[in-house]
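Following up on my earlier message about zinc ion. Here are the inputs again, as you asked, copied directly from the submission form:
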Amino acid sequence: MEKFRFKQLIESKLGTVKPLLVEESETSADECNVNIAQSDETADAFWDNFKKSTLVKPYDYNSTVRFQKWVKKNYPSINLGTFGIKKDGVDGKFGKLTQSAWNRVGNEYLKGGSQLNLPLTFTINEDIKRSISKARNEYLKWFSDENTRKKFKNQKLIPQLLKYINTLTSYKSYYNKNQSPNPKTFGWVKYAKSASQLNELKYKSINLNVFNIHNGKNYIASLDQVTKHEMGHLIDNFLRIYKEPTYILTQNTPTSQQEYSQTYITNDSETYSRLNNFRTIIEAGPMDDGNQMLNKFFNKIRSGTIQVKGFDLSAMYSSTKPRKASVDQANEIMKSLRKMILVNGLSSHNTQQLFSEYGIQSQGNIYVSFYLLGRLNQTSKGPEDENKKSNYLYLKFTPINQSV
Ligand SMILES: [Zn+2]
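Thanks, got it. Here's what our run produced:
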């Protein structure tokens, strides 16, 4: 594989930046909601009048009848119920029994050249199940990796963690923003405070605001990133309760929802979930350092998976010591990066927010510390600074209208 050559460049323009004090803290918020993002996509009007009673509608009567008749003929043992004029289950509705028949033999039906117009909510729910299962398998693989396991203080916890991850299958989806308790987010999970809560379904459930993720025609946010992010919080709950710290706290844990919202951008639990996403996107391994992560990032740009709009990118070294941004600094950078980093064509909030946390803005350019991202990846305990180093790796964002 082609190896990216970093430009050896020392920039002194950035000036000196004080490293942020890193300290461990036992305090925990008593808020139960962990928001993913102050969503910057507006909910599409499509869902505004959406009601739960229409969950399996609008179904397509004619194509559903054709499918039901085909099932009766070819798979008489499949139970379609007793609805319909002939009380044989042929009623043109895409209800539970027809859904289950579809999941069993739908592929056969399609192979024969026939079509069924599936209700939108059904296909979205299938996508959600697939996405949660994908996230679960990725985390299981991650925590089964020898290099991840080495990071644990308490190795005995790992089998229990894997068992817990295996149980993370439940979700609740909101289609109408008036019914959602947190309409301005993509998703959220409850903040568990005890081992017994970890076993309660509502503390394992991933809540999704479909109306912020799908506009009735297309996905406007990455479902996979949302589920991966929220599952990251659930795993974080487990590790926190069993005293296996995943990261070093760089800010006080918020004690109210208001404080949480205000400091959301640099929240350490959010950082952890964002990092989990970033690892997936660039296919980073547990021991990849900043250099390897930046190489992988550039590979994804070359392959077209990641697109960065409005900026030229370059890798550089600087003697300027990196640090995690303050809330104000990170919010300021986020203004420039918002909607600029796309993954598979969709704005990647996780990447934009993660870069904002480890960015330095100077003279219109943004310098993202891959040194710190690498430290975070290798330990997952939080980046610590090494004073000895004289060269720190940065990804430089130069606005295109400013570059010649
Ligand atoms: Zn979150």
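One observation from looking it over: The longest helix spans residues 120-144. Hope that helps, and feel free to reply on this thread.
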